[in-house]
């Protein structure tokens, strides 16, 4: 009997529920020890289920069409959503024109690296084959998000000092942004078996081919994160420091993104309107 190549398992929502039990255990422990992470864990789990369900539905249609225009549309959507995630959800500090800056940084790094990597490093012809290109560009976008957030946050935090320190600030920001990727490359295959390699093995590929595929993916991720971090850091410094080498603090903002502030105001106004009929004092019998 051959047990070398496992067949892909057919997973149902019951299997998803079993996996969710482990996360519920973490949420319970967080509540028990008052860590304050229970809500974040549950919200993240809900987002994970919804987002992956929608992604699976959309990608299935894209794979069936096998069209380069559909692949281009998904790529643009991933980059746009990644930009929104960086600017609105991940960044605690923002600067003027941050959205187009992050958008250009992600497009200039993820798209060329994914195209060249899929075509020449991975050997796919044409390079836009949905099953090959979309997972690659998705992983690159995910890693560039982390690099851009770390680098821009570090720049905006430290640039409040004098401008002469701008270069070491940018250097330190890039070092921090690239450290996770470098650490991952240094221990990959020695301490941890990466997800792409595991997926390829479970999908029926040989261990040798899976290892080579993971090498290519790691090199592409490293290139994309470095390019994105360098561009985002450079553009951030160029935005907050004017041509006369003055730091423009009015271009840096802290706190929630504008969209969340507007949402809170609208929600507050709606709740006030709903409570208003019940807040009016009812006349007593003596007044009647």
UniProtKB/TrEMBL annotation:
It comes from the Eukaryota. It is found in: Membrane. The keyword 4Fe-4S does not apply. One of its GO terms (cellular component) is plasma membrane. The keyword Nucleotide-binding does not apply. InterPro entries: UPF0014_fam (IPR005226). Its main location: membrane. The chain crosses the membrane at residues 12-34, 41-63, 69-88, 100-120, 132-156, 185-204, 216-241. Keywords: Membrane, Transmembrane, Transmembrane helix. Belongs to the UPF0014 family. This is Uncharacterized protein.
């Amino acid at each position: 009997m051959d047990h070398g190549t496992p067949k892909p398992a057919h997973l149902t929502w019951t299997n998803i529920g079993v996996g969710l039990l482990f996360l519920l255990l973490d949420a319970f422990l967080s509540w028990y020890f008052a860590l304050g992470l229970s809500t974040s864990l549950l919200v993240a789990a809900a987002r994970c289920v919804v987002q992956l369900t929608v992604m699976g539905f959309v990608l299935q249609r894209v794979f069936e069409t096998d069209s380069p225009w559909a692949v281009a549309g998904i790529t643009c959507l991933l980059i746009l959503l990644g930009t929104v995630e960086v600017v609105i959800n991940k960044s605690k500090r923002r600067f003027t024109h941050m959205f187009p800056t992050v958008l250009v940084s992600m497009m200039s790094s993820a798209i060329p690296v994914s195209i060249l990597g899929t075509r020449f490093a991975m050997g796919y012809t044409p390079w836009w084959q949905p099953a090959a290109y979309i997972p690659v560009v998705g992983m690159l976008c995910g890693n560039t998000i982390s690099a851009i957030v770390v680098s821009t946050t570090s720049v905006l935090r430290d640039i409040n000092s004098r401008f002469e320190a701008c270069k070491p600030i940018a250097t330190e920001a890039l070092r921090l942004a690239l450290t996770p990727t470098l650490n991952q490359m240094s221990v990959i295959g020695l301490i941890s078996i990466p997800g792409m390699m595991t997926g390829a093995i479970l999908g029926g590929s040989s261990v040798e081919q899976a290892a080579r595929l993971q090498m290519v993916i790691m090199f592409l991720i490293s290139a994309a994160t470095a390019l994105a971090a360098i561009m985002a850091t450079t553009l951030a410094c160029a935005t907050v420091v004017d041509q006369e080498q003055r730091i423009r603090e009015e271009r840096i903002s802290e706190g929630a993104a504008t969209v969340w502030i507007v949402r809170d105001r609208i929600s507050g106004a709606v709740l006030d309107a709903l409570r208003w009929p019940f807040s009016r004092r009812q006349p007593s019998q003596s007044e009647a």
